[in-house]
Amino acid sequence: MGSIRTYSGSRVDPFDLKPEDIRIEDIAASLSKLCRFLGHGKHFISVAEHSFMVSHLVHSKHALAGLLHDGSEAYLQDIPSPIKATEEFAGYRLIEDRAQQVIFRRFGLPYPFDVSVHEADKRVAADEAIAIYDPPPTWVGTPGREPYGIPVACWDHPTAREMFLRRYHELTEYGLGSQEAFL
Is the dihedral of CA 168, 172, 178, 181 positive or negative? Predict the structure, then answer.
């Protein structure tokens, strides 16, 4: 199939990713430039910032999974959940799931990831929606979509990239992520 050139200069086939194709620098660079909610808001919030927040809101043993839970979007793209959930996107979901499995294998993480990561993902989205929409969408505050009430920084992409990488190195340096650790 087709291949893409990544931030690091390598070429990868998103439809046939291999663990050796995956570089944390490529994930950080791409996710820092991908805007949440298709850019339809008052402010830019990157997928990297979103992932950073999720990684801080789950138990530390799931923090690396929280940081990388949208890693496949670095190779495919961020598609809003209501669109991705449609029948027309069934094939995309399969490709995304395969890519996510490879990324988790590359970083020694179990897949599928813990349900707490999904829960934090949805709740952080509610905080983000409050930060960028006036008024917030009607789904904010519904069961499973209750905001944490945390501030959203709306980092520019260089800051988002730096903070994502900093969090990755913090988690991997201290052996957190897939191992048991304290909160």
Answer: negative
For residue 182, is it within any domain?
no
Q: For each successive 10 residues of the chain (183 residues), what is the average pLDDT? A: 92 97 98 96 97 98 98 94 95 97 98 98 98 96 97 98 98 63 30
The answer as to whether 128 is a domain residue is: yes
Judge whether 106 lies within some domain: yes
Tell me which residue of 8, 30, 32 sits closest to 160, measured CA to CA.
Answer: 32
Q: Which domain holds residue 136?
A: 18-173
| Beta bridge pairs of residue 12 | 4
DSSP 4: E
Residues in the chain: 183
